[in-house]
Amino acid sequence: MQLVDSTLREGEQTPHVCFSIQEKVRIARMLDKIGIEMIEAGDPSVSLDLFEAVKKIASLGLRAEVQAHSLATKECIDRVKKTGAARVIVLYPTSKIHLDSKVQKTQGEALKIISENIIYARSLGLKVRYTPEDATRTDFKFLVKACNTAIAAGADRINIADTLGIMQP
Q1: CA distance linking residue 33 with residue 67, whole number of Å
Q2: Alpha-carbon span 114 to 93, nearest angstrom
Q3: Which of 75, 76, 69 is nearest to 161 (CA)?
Q4: Distance from C-alpha of 155 to C-alpha of 20, rounded to nearest angstrom
Q5: For residue 136, what pLDDT is reported?
Q6: Average pLDDT rounded to a whole number, residues 13-23
Q7: Residue 113's pLDDT is what?
Q8: Cα 43 from Cα 30, distance rounded (Å)
């Protein structure tokens, strides 16, 4: 088991919370000090400040693996590579509602996009974690197919996201 901390990403999704670059660096150092093994630093494509924060955190020489989120596009994956983060977390939706309304793609097109972008990230030397957005509302057989596609393309970790918080223990 390894511990992944998402404070720097999920924490800023809380209303009225916005960490400065210095605060993010301080938080990352504290997480590293207490033995957190993986730190989700955020999505460097969101803003220049977030790009700079991820880059700064990745340059600290922490024991923790610095991870950065990315949409499944070459442009966004390139931004992650430029930060120096060790791992990219590739996001692409799998639920029918997201495929239809958010990205207007078929399941077949989605599998191709997932595969191509993970292969691209691996070609840049990045480790890859794939997160199927809205996984808990995805048809289970297709979810398994999407995850297996990601693994075949080079992802070594899969994160099942309960995007809307509908699952119960």
Answers
A1: 17
A2: 9
A3: 69
A4: 31
A5: 95
A6: 93
A7: 99
A8: 20
Give percent above pLDDT 70 in the chain. Answer: 100
Edge to edge, the sheet with strand 65-71 lists 4-5, 38-40, 65-71, 87-93, 127-133, 157-158
Residue 166 makes CB contacts below 8 A (sequence gap 6+) with 136, 137
**Percent share of the chain, pLDDT over 90:** 90
Q: Does 51 or 162 have the greater pLDDT score? A: 51
Side-chain half-sphere CA neighbours of 16 within 13 A: 0
Handedness of CA 132, 150, 8, 48 (dihedral sign): negative
The span from the CA of 90 to the CA of 155, in Å, is 9
Quote the tokens at residue 70.
């990315």
Q: Scan for tokens 């880059």, then name that residue.
A: 55
